[in-house]
Design goal:
binds coenzyme A; Aminopeptidase; alpha+beta; 8 helices; 293 residues; nine-stranded mixed beta sheet; five-stranded antiparallel beta sheet
C-alpha cells in the first residue's frame, strides 16, 4: 500500500526492518524509552503484528516522520470487529502538515478493508483530543484508570484459579472484557505473553488464568490487570465479586508498591464503589474516542 501526498512524505506499511528508523524518530522527539528504545520498540512491533495489527509509517526519503500502530480486533458483542489506534506520533518538526491526517486516513481504510465498522483510541492530552476531533472522533465510554490500594483482607473469598491459559486462547471472543479495557483485548493478551519472551522486567507475574468455578478469565499484563466475564454474569452481582477479587489478587500484596492498576467504565466503578472501599486509591478519568470508518 502506498498513499502519495502533495508534500515530500508518503505513507506505507512498516516491516521489522523499519524499527531502527522508527526508534530514531522517537529519540529525535525526546523519547529514549519505550518506542525510542530499540529493544522495547521491537517488543511493541511484535505485539502489534502478533494480533494481525498493522504498523504504518510516513517516510521522507526513508526517514520516518510519522508512526501509527493499528490493532484489528474481533471481540464479544457489543464490541464486534473494530480497529484501535494504539500509537500515533508525528515528528515534532513535521507537525501541522497533514501527516497525522494521512496516517489516520490510511488506518481507517485498513480497518474498513478488514470488515471493521469503527476506530477507537484514547487521546494523550488536549492537543491530541483536538486532532482526533478534527479527524471525526467523538467521545465514547467515560472510563477511569484506577490505582487501587487493596488490603489482603479484601481478598478473602477470591475464586481459586485453574491452570494458566495458553497464549493461543481467545476468550475475548465469548467473554466480555469488563476491567482493564483500555486497549483491544488481543493486544493486552499479547503484551502479557510476549513480555516474557523479550525478558522485560515487567513480565514478572504476567499471564492468564481461568477461574476454577466459572468461565471467567483473569489476565495480568505488564501494566494492568483484566477481568473477562461470561455475558450473562452482571459485573456488579454478588456472584461476580469472587472473580473481581481473583483479578485484584494477581497484583495485590505483590511488588508493585501496594497498588493494583486496572481500568473500568466510570459508571461501573461508581456502582461497585471501588474507590470508597479502599482509602488511598486513586482514579484518573479518560475517554475512549470512537469514529466510524
Ligand atoms: C497529534 C499529532 C499526531 C497530530 O499530527 P499532525 O501531523 O501534526 O496533524 P495534522 O497536520 O494532520 O492535523 C490535522 C488537523 O488536526 C488538528 N490538529 C492537529 N494538531 C493540533 C493541535 N496541536 N492543536 C489543535 N488542533 C490540532 C487541526 O485541525 C489540523 O488541521 P489544520 O492543521 O489544517 O488546522 C501530533 O501533534 C503528535 O504527534 N503529537 C504528539 C503525540 C500525540 O499526541 N499522539 C496522539 C496519540 S495519543
Amino acid at each position: 500500500m502506498a498513499v502519495h501526498s502533495a508534500t515530500a512524505y508518503r505513507v506505507r506499511l512498516a516491516g521489522a526492518a523499519d524499527i531502527p528508523a522508527i526508534t530514531a524518530m522517537y529519540r529525535f522527539d525526546g523519547f529514549p524509552h519505550a518506542q525510542g528504545d530499540p529493544e522495547r520498540a521491537a517488543f511493541y512491533y511484535a505485539c502489534v503484528r502478533s494480533v494481525s495489527g498493522r504498523v504504518l509509517i510516513a517516510v521522507e526519503d526513508e526517514v520516518v516522520v510519522g508512526h501509527l500502530e493499528l490493532l484489528l480486533s474481533q471481540e464479544a458483542s457489543p464490541l464486534g470487529r473494530y480497529g484501535y489506534l494504539e500509537a500515533l506520533e508525528v515528528r515534532v518538526d513535521r507537525r501541522r502538515r497533514g501527516v497525522g491526517r494521512a496516517l489516520v486516513a490510511a488506518a481507517k481504510a485498513l480497518t474498513r478493508a478488514a470488515g471493521g465498522a469503527r476506530l477507537e483510541t484514547v487521546p494523550e492530552d488536549a492537543a491530541a483530543m483536538a486532532f482526533y476531533t478534527a479527524m471525526g472522533f467523538r467521545p465514547g465510554t467515560p472510563s477511569v484508570d484506577l490505582d487501587l490500594a487493596v488490603p489482603p483482607t479484601a481478598l478473602h473469598g477470591a475464586a481459586p484459579l485453574r491452570r494458566p491459559l495458553p497464549p493461543g486462547a481467545h476468550p475475548w471472543l465469548r467473554l466480555r472484557h469488563v476491567a482493564g479495557r483500555q486497549y483491544a483485548a488481543p493486544y493486552c493478551w499479547a503484551r502479557a505473553f510476549l513480555a516474557g519472551c523479550w525478558g522485560l522486567p515487567e513480565a514478572t507475574g504476567t499471564g492468564a488464568w481461568q477461574l476454577r468455578d466459572s468461565d471467567a478469565v483473569v489476565l495480568a499484563d505488564p501494566w494492568l490487570v483484566h477481568l473477562f466475564l461470561p455475558p450473562d454474569l452482571p459485573p456488579e452481582s454478588d456472584e461476580a465479586w469472587p472473580a473481581w477479587q481473583a483479578m485484584l489478587a494477581l497484583r495485590a500484596g505483590g511488588t508493585r508498591e501496594g497498588y493494583v492498576r486496572t481500568v473500568v467504565a466510570t459508571s461501573l466503578a461508581d456502582r461497585l464503589r471501588l474507590l470508597e472501599h479502599w482509602p488511598g486509591s486513586t482514579a484518573e478519568p479518560f475517554t475512549l474516542l470512537t469514529c466510524s470508518v
